[in-house]
Write a structure and sequence with these properties.
Layout (H helix, E strand, L loop, with lengths): L8 E6 L2 E6 L3 H12 L10 H13 L8 H10 L14
Antiparallel strand pairs: 1-2
Helix pairs in contact: 1-2
Bound molecules: zinc ion.
The site of zinc ion has 4 residues, from loops.
Amino acid sequence: MGHKGDIHKLTVALPEGKCVIHHIDPETSKSIAALLDAFGIQYTGQSLPAATQTVLFELLKPKREHLSEKEREELYEEQGGKCENCASALDK
Ligand SMILES: [Zn+2]
């Protein structure tokens, strides 16, 4: 690895788009696959930087629960019709 003139990737232009074939080191790809697997993301031959970025974005994705009408009602009652953070009255 790291020799000048080594082939790192092969890009083929297809009618559907670009097909890129990467050189993958089996040990590295096993680690990257394990990292992505821990986050339920499919490994498709990404490089470590690309995989890391995908994981970062996954972690930064806001997790907002969707409440049913009934759950919303219960939460409203539970908090006495007030905002949990600042205790100001909530619109229903
Ligand atoms: Zn508030």
